[in-house]
Design goal:
The complex is a heterotrimer of chains A (383), B (214) and C (300). In chain A, helix 1 packs antiparallel against helix 4, helix 6 runs antiparallel to helix 7 and helix 9 runs parallel beside helix 12. Chain A has twelve helices and eight strands. In chain A, a hairpin with a 7-residue loop joins strand 4 and strand 5. The longest helix of chain A is centred in the middle third of the chain and has 25 residues. Chain B is an all-alpha fold and 214 residues long. Chain B has a single domain, classed as Orthogonal Bundle (Helix Hairpins). In chain B, 49% of the residues are buried. Chain B has seven helices and no strands. Chain C has one domain. Chain C contains eleven helices and no strands. Classes of the chains: A alpha/beta (383), B mainly alpha (214), C mainly alpha (300). Chains in contact: A-B, A-C, B-C. At the A-C interface, helix 1, helix 5, helix 6, helix 8 and helix 12 of A face helix 2 and helix 5 of C.
Chain lengths: 383, 214, 300
């Protein structure tokens, strides 16, 4: 056995997957993330780092093109995995197994040098900026293929230095039609019974954990992000509710205790409480993160009140108190029906202009719109 | 031997500042020159000053790189006024270079020892390259690089004078420290003025900012 | 170079490599990887077989220089640290040397970030400069405090000066500031914004294959060196009962290193738009006060 073969086999045991979420691909993405975590794979942050590109859901023409560009940037040995929106856990597992086998055999070679495929060099133009220096403007699209980024969201930015000067926010065209994974199956019916109510709550909590995982990953707290994602997967699997509730509470306490997180998120992406802006979007990134924490299941006995008060009392002085999201009101707030995800698209451009790139990512992650809930004709917002 | 290697490196780095075609490379060529001179200081027992120069210069050059890239519309395409300057730069830069080589070859088979004269030769070479740069370049940033090279020569000469002429009192070392401070000041002041002019008038060339000329 | 120095140099490189590997393995373990002990090896294997990525019109010379400079700077900074009884390079200005080599990392990161000609690495490079300007002054004052307490810039003298009381005991502020800047120097954990996930990996985002391996190895080496430097500067060097000096140095280094790696997983990233203010308004006066206290104590 040659050295290269041995190295390839060793390497294939721990590939770095770059997971691309497509519209209506949330379910597949969750399965892939859970499976990757189970195998101890660390997600790649950039294409050059990855060896495995996992496309979750159906990429439409636009995202398909973006995926192709990213694929060019993945160095060999590399494997592209497509997980269909309705793939089962077993299918995902098999696909990843196949990918590992293929990587061990050398993957698809010849990808290493595709980066310089004769695109013309666009020279940066110049324009006015925040500090009155007419600096070079750089056009940088954020998304749709980016680690820890809402599926299908595209923000076309104009950067000067590290600062976003202009932003156009839009939703990439979906490759298929569907229903958001986070919406419970029967949300249109009015006669919700107890199980539906539980299901709604569970999904909503899982969605909050998913968003928290993203936000914490972008905020550079890998440990907590991983914990959020693991809790999310356990919650969706419906396993061991008692232990899970306890773990959720411990996690929420841990996140709330972090002073650095408070210091970094306070005042980021402030949303005023105007009419038409749902309660849960108001405040800054920290308020929204704490709002997500409030939706997590709290330990039994069933009465959720103590946890709510607990959560509320910690940020009494906050504007637009996210505590209002908690506890008893949960069920009234029909998931997605407040149109928050559409509102986010409208707000985003205004929030992003003038922000530094690091803050911009935090703002997006703290709003974390689910574009699958948008009406078919998604608007383009400029800022 | 070590000295001559460093000297050639210093002069070649200095000359490269006005020859290479990218601003980023120019900065790091200048940094090479500065670090080589810091290396010669270490050879004459100026441990503290030499290491301090390394520390200061790396930081200074990086701040400079950021400013420079900010002002250049097209950093990769090179320095303003450097196109026609390239040949002259070689001519101006190389005499010192050649002298050094000649010095290194003489007497045949052995390496000429490090003396005050050799330090002054290095300083002269660096100073003339810097002077050439300061006079010939139109971009304020490139002009400042010329100034830095001249001060670099001063550092080399100051260190050598201390070592060979008056090692008993600290004047030479203080001179070097003053030179380093001047360099930092020049950077700070220079970029403050440049930023102000650039902001007000979108100008980063000396010819367009000559309104105080009598 | 006499024989003792040669042996010390070899043992320095070996211990640096071993500790860097250990740090990588510990980080992988805390990061949820299975079989963490072998994880760095597998990652190295992966990077060795991985192809090299080429971006559009890169400045390859600058990228390569920067990549190689990173482990080189770590190694050069380590030469003044006494592992056993004496360091490889027993310089009279060891503390300044350490500081200068650590500043070379700024250059390395900027070279890589600029050279690959890509947005995210460039932003990462910018960020590291901002970070450098934030942490460097408090860091320097912390080092000056140590030098003042020992009355020497030679690291061996600093160790000797701690025979009675470790510096960490009566310079706690300087020690804490040093640890913060140690994280910043190695752009690790909470100070890892230049290579953060929110800029798609930042500076090394476009590196792959061997380049990335060298970069990653350099970063871990740097982390080891900044952790190891805390031992002679604040923790009494090899002083301790029963065990020989080198063993105590190793134990203390591993403890500091483990702490730094742990913090990397436990604390969110710190952004420079907030930290700079804190560093200049809070940390600099604090370190100055610390220096004042030390100056009064050592006043003859």
């Amino acid at each position: 056995m040659g050295v290269r073969e041995w190295l390839l086999r060793q390497a294939a045991l721990r590939p770095r997957p770059l997971v691309v979420g497509c519209p209506y691909g949330t379910r597949a993405r969750l399965l892939v993330e859970a499976e990757a975590d189970r195998r101890g794979w660390v997600a790649a942050a950039a294409p050059a780092e990855a060896g495995l590109l996992v496309v979750c859901g159906a990429a439409g023409s636009e995202i398909g093109q973006a995926v192709e560009v990213v694929w060019e940037a993945v160095p060999a040995p590399r494997v592209l995995v497509e997980a269909a929106s309705d793939a089962s856990a077993g299918a995902v597992r098999r696909a990843l197994d196949d990918a590992v086998a293929e990587l061990a055999a050398g993957g698809l070679d010849g990808g290493a040098r595709h980066g310089d495929a004769g695109r013309p060099v666009a020279m940066a133009g110049r324009g006015r900026d925040r500090d009155g220096l007419t600096l070079d403007r750089l056009h940088v699209p954020l998304g749709p293929v980016l680690a820890d980024w809402p599926a299908g969201l595209v923000v076309e930015t104009v950067l000067q230095g590290d600062v976003i000067q202009e932003a156009v926010v839009r939703a990439a065209s979906a490759g298929a039609d569907g229903v958001s994974f986070w919406d419970p199956p029967r949300r249109d019916e009015t006669d919700r019974d107890e199980t539906d109510r539980d299901e709604t709550e569970r999904r909503e909590a899982a969605r909050c954990l998913d968003s928290l995982g993203r936000l914490l990953a972008v905020a550079g707290w890998p440990g907590a992000a991983r914990e959020a994602r693991r809790l999310r997967d356990r919650l969706l699997a419906g396993a061991a509710p008692a232990g899970l509730r306890r773990d959720c509470e411990r996690f929420a306490r841990r996140v709330r205790r972090s002073r650095v997180l408070r210091w970094m998120l306070r005042g980021v992406g402030p949303v005023e409480g105007r009419a038409g802006v749902p309660e849960r979007l108001r405040g800054d990134a920290l308020d929204r993160a704490y709002g997500w924490l409030d939706t997590l299941p709290s330990p039994l006995p069933d009465d959720p009140a103590p946890a709510t008060q607990n959560g509320g009392s910690r940020h009494d002085g906050d504007p637009g108190g996210a505590g209002a999201c908690g506890g008893g009101q949960r069920v009234d707030r029909v998931v997605g029906a407040d149109g928050a995800d559409g509102v986010v698209l409208g707000l985003l451009a205004g929030l992003l202009v003038g922000a530094e790139s690091a803050v911009a990512r935090l703002i997006v992650a703290s709003l974390d719109p689910d574009l699958d809930r948008l009406p078919a004709s998604a608007a383009v917002r400029r800022g | 031997m070590g000295f001559w290697t460093l000297a050639v490196l210093a002069v070649a780095g200095g000359a490269a500042v006005f020859v290479v075609n990218s601003m980023a490379r120019a900065t790091f060529a200048l940094l090479t020159s500065l670090l080589a001179v810091a290396g010669t200081l270490l050879l004459v027992d100026l441990g503290y000053v030499g290491v301090l120069v390394v520390l200061m210069m790396v930081m200074e050059m990086l701040v400079m790189a950021v400013f420079m890239i900010m002002y250049m519309m097209n950093p990769a395409a090179g320095a303003h006024g450097a196109e026609d300057a390239g040949d002259d730069g070689d001519r101006d830069g190389h005499p010192g270079d050649d002298d050094l080589h000649r010095g290194a070859r003489h007497p045949p088979g052995t390496v000429r020892p490090m003396t005050l004269q050799s330090f002054l030769l290095l300083a002269a070479a660096l100073f003339s390259i810097g002077l050439y740069g300061a006079l010939s370049q139109q971009s304020i940033v490139m002009l400042m690089m010329g100034l830095e090279l001249m001060i670099n020569a001063l550092i080399a000469a100051g260190g050598a004078f201390w070592y060979y002429v008056a090692p008993h009192n600290a004047d030479g070392q203080v001179l070097v420290l003053v030179a380093v401070t001047v360099m930092a000041l020049e950077m700070a002041m220079g970029f403050a003025v440049t930023t102000a002019i650039f902001r007000a008038r979108d100008v980063d060339l000396t010819d367009e900012a000559g309104d105080l000329k009598g | 170079m006499d024989e003792g120095t040669g042996a010390a140099a070899v043992s320095l490189v070996v211990s640096l490599a071993v500790l860097a590997y250990g740090a990588a393995a510990l980080d992988a373990g805390l990061g949820g990887a299975r079989g963490a002990a072998g994880a760095p090896l597998r990652e190295a294997a992966r990077l060795l077989v991985q192809g090299r990525r080429r971006t559009l019109v890169p400045d390859t010379l600058l990228v390569r220089t920067g990549t190689v400079l990173l482990p080189l700077a770590a190694l050069l900074a380590a030469t003044v640290l006494p592992a056993g009884d004496r360091p490889v390079l027993d310089s009279g200005v060891g503390i300044v040397w350490f500081n200068a080599m650590e500043v070379c990392v700024w250059g390395a990161l900027w070279l890589v970030g600029w050279g690959v000609n890509s947005v995210y690495p460039l932003i990462g490079g910018y960020r590291f400069l901002a970070q450098g300007l934030s942490y460097e002054l408090p860091h320097m004052f912390a080092l000056i405090t140590v030098a003042l307490g020992a009355g020497s810039l030679r690291i061996a003298d600093v160790v000797a000066a701690q025979r009675e009381v470790w510096f960490v005991v009566w310079m706690p502020v300087a020690f804490v500031v040093y640890l913060v800047s140690a994280l910043a120097m190695a752009f690790w954990g909470p100070m890892g914004e230049p290579v953060g996930r929110n800029v798609a990996g930042g500076v090394p985002a476009e590196l792959s294959g061997a380049d990335r391996l060298v970069f990653a190895a350099g970063r871990y080496a740097l982390l080891v060196v900044v952790a190891a430097a805390a031992v002679p500067l604040f923790l009494g060097g090899g002083a301790g009962p029963v065990l020989p000096g080198w063993a105590w140095t190793a134990v203390k280094t591993v403890a500091v290193l483990g702490g730094l790696v742990l913090v990397g997983q436990r604390v969110p990233a710190v952004r420079m738009d907030r930290f700079t203010e804190f560093a200049w308004v809070v940390l600099i006066p604090l370190t100055l006060l610390q220096t004042l206290v030390v100056a009064i104590v050592v006043l003859p």
